[in-house]
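hey so i finally got around to running the thing on that chain from the lab meeting. sorry it took forever, my laptop kept dying and i had to restart like 3 times. anyway pasting the input first so we r on the same page abt which one it is
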Amino acid sequence: MFSLDLNVSDIDGHAVVALCGELDLADTSDVAAHLIAAVAAYGPSVIVDLAGLTFIDSCGLGVLVRVLRWTRQSGGDLPLAAPQHQVRRVLQITGLIDAFTVYPSVTLAISGASDTALAGPSDVAASPRTQLGVVAVNGLTPADTAVR
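ok and heres what got predicted. didnt touch it at all, straight out
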């Protein structure tokens, strides 16, 4: 039984993949396929709307990291928008908050307002982000996602 709803939409010419529910092992292949299809249709940058995502496990993180690496190797990005407290906390604890470009809303992700990227629990901060810890997710660390 799937615990995730996924919706792909076009907002001002940008692909936005909205995830609602819980992203775990049962849904990873479906999410990966939809993200890859969105990249193929819209180009190497796809926004992932996490406003409705209430839970993510290591398998879900692994899918996002793999697609992030692929989009960056293609000259794009995989910005995350509007992660709720629990999902944002998982990103912080794993150190992946520093690997992704994270915005407080889809609107800001579309505009590319990098000066409003989330820095941590305060939602929008101007101070540099600090990594809380490096944790391997499916064999990958945040350093593995760096653009080389």
